[in-house]
Design a protein that fits this description.
By secondary structure, the protein is mainly beta. The chain has one helix at 3-21, and strands at 28-30, 36-38, 41-51, 67-77, 83-84, 89-92, 97-99, 116-117, 122-131, 136-140, 148-152, 158-160. A hairpin with a 2-residue loop joins strand 2 (36-38) and strand 3. The longest helix has 19 residues, at 3-21.
Length: 183
């Protein structure tokens, strides 16, 4: 083989290895409320709340660095085996990530850190993040290299000091009446 042919062959091999590893897949983002499937799990965001504190007692209430995002999710297992729900991550519009908080103290229906879903079953609960109040996507992770997320628009979020909203008694709701237009 000529030296020129060898040099071209080596350059082609180096370029193919270097270019192949740098290819990134475009993330697949589902709207809030829709089901997003990754592997054997199908996720759905049910509700989102922002809380300034966690816990009802002022003396023992936890305060975040920014805000507590409480995201209620469902995760259904379609496989024939028990599977684990991996850690979830909030990603802002600039790519900054916020991991789940591992302490669910003061959170009703906290999903926990170690979470398993039996075959054909659904787990539902709240995952907690400490992040500024803004638009996010909830990145779902598993053993694949897919980047699948659920959009968490800021207008989908409910902000309160209490992570769960009290029920409304329909008999006490007053609906304003609009007088008919004069002709």
């Amino acid at each position: 083989m000529s030296r020129l042919f060898q040099a071209v062959l080596i350059a082609a091999c180096v370029l193919s290895v270097g270019c192949g590893s740098g290819v990134t897949k475009k993330p697949k983002i589902y709207p809030s409320g829709e089901k997003a499937t990754i592997g054997a799990l199908t996720y759905s965001v049910v509700d989102v709340h922002i809380a300034a504190t966690l816990g009802e007692d002022q003396a023992t209430a936890r305060t975040p660095q920014d805000r507590f995002f409480l995201i209620k999710i469902n995760a259904s297992n379609s496989s024939a085996e028990t599977v684990s729900i991996p850690a979830l991550t909030l990603v802002d519009d600039h790519g900054k990530t916020y991991p789940e908080i591992a302490d669910g103290n003061g959170v009703q229906n906290w999903l926990g850190v170690v979470r398993r879903v039996d075959s054909g079953q659904t787990a539902d609960g709240v995952v907690v993040f400490d992040a500024p109040a803004q638009h996010y996507r909830l990145r779902l992770t598993d053993d694949t290299e897919e980047d699948i997320s659920i959009d968490i628009p800021l207008n989908f979020v409910n902000e309160s000091n209490v992570p769960t909203l009290p029920p409304v008694d329909p008999s006490t709701v007053q609906v304003p009446t609009i007088p008919p237009k004069a002709k």
